[in-house]
Amino acid sequence: MTRLLEITRDKLMQRSTDCIMKFALSALWNLTDESPVACQTFTELDGISLVMDCLNKYEDIDDAEAKVQIQTKVVGLLNNIAEVKELREMLITRRFIDTMRNSLKSDSSEQRYFSGGILANLLSDSTNAAWDNLVAEYRSTESEVITAISHWYHPETAMVAYRCFRPFIPLLNSFTSLASQYWALWAVHHVCTKDPTKYVPMLTRDGVYECIVRLSMQSEDTSCSQVLELARNLHDFVSDFQNGSLNDQNLLPTTIETK
Question: 219 — alpha (psi -120 to 50), left (phi > 0) or beta?
């Protein structure tokens, strides 16, 4: 990992968009995926500061495609860090939250998706002491994430692949943050409707289906309309798939708009 960070730092100084820079970021993203130990090492080597510089310094480059590729790899990597509860305090800062809120408005559907995931993970940790001085930011970020997701529409193909759904359970059980529940439901709905044969069995295997059922049975007094609608839609989709009665209507609601 040390060598990958050195390569990234060298390429950043040159503002390079070559394949070596992209490879280094992809490798870091893969290394930290579902690996708290690797995520811890990444933070100890000052990786957060480095990739945040990547987000900022590539913001105004002329090559729009390279910009999207690099920034998407960065937010995907940071999403892995945000999944680790013990590391979230490093991310819950005004500067970081503002950067992710700005990234949530990207033209790239993938970048919006991962930025939403980062914020959803941080919002799910509402008792973290780092939020104590950011109460107003917590509330406005919660509202902004819900509003953003409500305007997402389906891309034609899946944006992401998952090996398991277990990281979504804390978000789905985060009853202090409807934004966290909403993003997790959207993410699960997205991949399940794209490849139900692969992902619907994973819902039961990883204990996520129980969370979806529980959310779908809530009253409007304890949830919000977006969460209820998506939870119930996903519940119906899974039931239809398991009963062999799936039809095109199940594939319509709520996903990201491609531009």
Answer: beta
Q: Is 14 left (phi over 0), alpha (psi -120 to 50) or beta?
A: alpha
Quick check: 11 and 25 in contact, CB under 8 A? no
Closest among 173, 150, 134, 164 to 225, alpha carbons compared: 150
For residues 256 and 186, give the distance between their C-alpha atoms in angstroms, rounded to a whole number.
9
> What 8-state DSSP symbol labels residue 153?
B
- Contact residues for 203 (Cβ-Cβ < 8 A; gap 6+): 165, 188, 192, 209, 212, 238
Burial of residue 53 (CB within 10 Å: 0-12, 13-18, 19+) is middle
pLDDT tens, 143-177?
A: 999 999 999 987 888 899 999 999 999 999 999 99
pTM over 0.90: yes
- CA distances 197 to 188, 192, 203, Å, are 13, 8, 11
The answer to whether the beta carbons of residues 100 and 113 sit under 8 Å apart is: no
What Å distances lie between residue 44 and 30, 122, 169, CA to CA? Answer: 18, 19, 27
Q: Categorise residue 155: left if φ over 0, alpha if ψ from -120 to 50, beta otherwise.
A: beta
228-240, pLDDT tens digit by residue? 999 999 999 999 9
